[in-house]
């Protein structure tokens, strides 16, 4: 085992090339530190988002949405896959040089695990290295959850969100789990022409969303040939050379569906199993998540964790915001904390996308708040020609507002461009802007944002 590195004594080791860790590694190096970043796979420089998560899936969604006459579905899919591969390769190379080109950064490709409070070993393809540093930052992300369902292990016709991206276009697909991953892939493959069935154990599709919003999403998925079966308990999966068969129960009644492929999309578990956290005295929770305080410090002095591995909301922009908290703690005045976050939005990139921030109507009523709401189908919003221009006037817009002080409590926007408009609504919420102030803003035309003028005028 080698115990020295060509870079000499290290100030910081970052384990995992996630969004927060890579950004912080660059910032610390530019501030004069000697930094090592350890990534287990050369195919993952840049982390989940650009290689197997946000970017490749959204590229596929974009291409699935394009209506190209005269080419078969399989050709359209193959073209989309090629474009996605070119894009991810480009971003991976850029990410690699962003750190590797810095003199004070040492990039190591291998799997890291702790050997002591401030030391790790790294198994590369050629050798095992021992490294130590005054500070260690864990940014190992999360992995697809493996359910206790007989036959659900990944292989052959049974896929997770990574392997499905490299499978041939299935004529038929069963998706187990109707969360973010399940809905996005159902929408993609449905639009590429697959016959898709989503099995979810919830009482209805997207059961965390208000019924009117969830029903609009379901209807758009149905337009793409997707069937959603709720209250479904999957009991087993089998496969042979011709198909995979998923057995499940709805209301105690046993049922089966066969398909070319099955996608398991039942959440993502913090990637800590192989880190040997005990060696460093780092406490973790039931799902393996690393326990951190609001400054992202773990239970071990000088060891921090950020991103999905901490068990919080699993979004690239949350990992990036974790980096801001930690950078402020290590290089700034230390006042910033994860508790400062308010109105963090999210988007499920089905077609059209559903974007949400704050409370749903159901959640606000459960909290006993006195509210007014505005709900309008996109096709009925006269002052919003943009969706009609781009040829997809489907969707719904909903606002939940405090009846007492006119503060925006939440919004659900399902329409073209909603992934952009939601950021404006979230900003208005963070700045304490009243609903009537947002309603009376000047917006460009023709845009999707201008719907806010009309919809917020209908609060009752
Ligand atoms: C299919 C899919 C689509 C998604 N779409 C979106 C989206 O549209 N928008 C959004 O905001 N979020 C999306 N997400 C979630 C988002 O990708 C994650 O929340 C985000 O990438 C997490 O970043 P991170 O910083 O926690 O670490 P990651 O980016 O997950 O990076 C962790 C890195 O650590 C490496 N690693 C793990 N263990 C070790 C070890 N022992 N040694 C060395 N290296 C190790 C891994 O190989 C990986 O590269 C999506 C996720 C998936 C799976
Ligand atoms: N657009 C985005 O921002 C985006 C896209 C993809 C993934 N992500 C992130 O990745 C994470 C993982 O996504 P995911 O979709 O895998 O997880 P998820 O937690 O969002 O959804 C899992 C779904 O599976 C269902 N389920 C659980 N056990 C089941 C069972 N045994 N049988 C049937 N259904 C069952 C749940 O009801 C839930 O609807 C998300 O939490 C999200 O933060 C984000």
From TrEMBL:
Q: Which cofactor does it need?
A: FAD
Q: Where does NAD(+) bind?
A: 177-184, 267
Give the Gene Ontology MF terms in alphabetical order: flavin adenine dinucleotide binding; NAD(P)H dehydrogenase (quinone) activity; oxidoreductase activity, acting on a sulfur group of donors, NAD(P) as acceptor
Residue span, FAD/NAD(P)-binding domain = 11-319
Pfam families in UniProt: Pyr_redox_2, Pyr_redox_dim
UniProt binding sites for FAD: 58, 308
Q: Where is the Pyridine nucleotide-disulphide oxidoreductase dimerisation domain?
A: 344-454
This protein's source sits in the domain of life called Bacteria
Give the matching PROSITE patterns: PYRIDINE_REDOX_1 (PS00076)
Tell me the keywords, alphabetical order. Disulfide bond, FAD, Flavoprotein, NAD, NADP, Nucleotide-binding, Oxidoreductase, Redox-active center
Matching InterPro entries, A to Z?
A: FAD/NAD-bd_sf (IPR036188), FAD/NAD-binding_dom (IPR023753), FAD/NAD-linked_Rdtase_dimer_sf (IPR016156), Pyr_nuc-diS_OxRdtase (IPR001100), Pyr_nucl-diS_OxRdtase_dimer (IPR004099), Pyr_OxRdtase_I_AS (IPR012999)
Cofactor: bound how, per the entry note?
A: Binds 1 FAD per subunit.
Catalytic residue list: 445 (proton acceptor)
Q: List the disulfide bonds.
A: 49-54
Q: Which family does it belong to?
A: Belongs to the class-I pyridine nucleotide-disulfide oxidoreductase family.
- PANTHER family annotated for this entry? MERCURIC REDUCTASE, PYRIDINE NUCLEOTIDE-DISULFIDE OXIDOREDUCTASE RCLA-RELATED
Question: What protein is this chain from?
Answer: Pyridine nucleotide-disulfide oxidoreductase
Its taxonomic placement starts with:
Bacteria, Bacillati, Actinomycetota, Actinomycetes, Micrococcales
